[in-house]
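Quick one:
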Amino acid sequence: MQGKGILVVISGFSGAGKGTLVKRLLCDCDDYALSVSMTTRGMREGEVDGRDYFFVTKDAFEDAIKNDMLVEHASYCGNYYGTPKAYVDKMLSEGKCVILEIEVQGAMQIKEKFPDTLLLFVTPPSIKILENRLRGRGTETEEVIAKRLRQAMDEAKLMEKYEYLIINDDLDECVKQTDEIIHAALFEASRNADFISDMKQQLAEINK
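Output:
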C-alpha cells in the first residue's frame, strides 16, 4: 500500500543515545535512509565527512541558507546544523523512511513545513543517567557538559510536541519499539490519502 516514504525526526538530549539508536535502525532494517546533516562543529574521532555529517565552514553553511538548500537549520551550542533538501526528496520518492537526527529547533521547523512528519524524542530513564553518559564519553570538558545540561532544560520544554517518547534504557528494546512505531505510522489513514482516494474511486466504479 505504502508508496512514498515518510519523514521521521529523531531528537533527544545530548548523551541520550539517539545516534546509536539510528545506527542500529539503519543496520537492522533496509527500508530506512539517513539524512546526513550539515554542520559547522568540529569532527570527532572516528567520524567521516559525508557519512556522519557534512562538515563545513560557517561561511559555507550560511551560503546554503541564503540559497535555500536546506529543509531546516538551527544553531546549537555555538554551531550550525541543517538538513540538505535534495537527498531527502530523493529517498522519500523511492519509498524510504527518511530519518533526520536533528535538534528540537529544527524538528519544529520540519513539522511546520511537513505536518505528516513523525516526531520521536529519545531520552534516558533519568537526568542522572544522562549526566553519567555525558561524562562517560570522555570527549567533553566539564564546561561543555554543563552547557549541554543547560541546553537540555530548553529541549525539555518541547518534549510534549513530539508524538512519541523513546526511553533508551535497554538498547535492543529501544530499537525494537522505535521500528514498530515507525512502521505503524506508515499505515495511518492520514498518511495514505492517495490510497484511500483510489479505493473510493474503485468502489464508485463498481457501484455505478
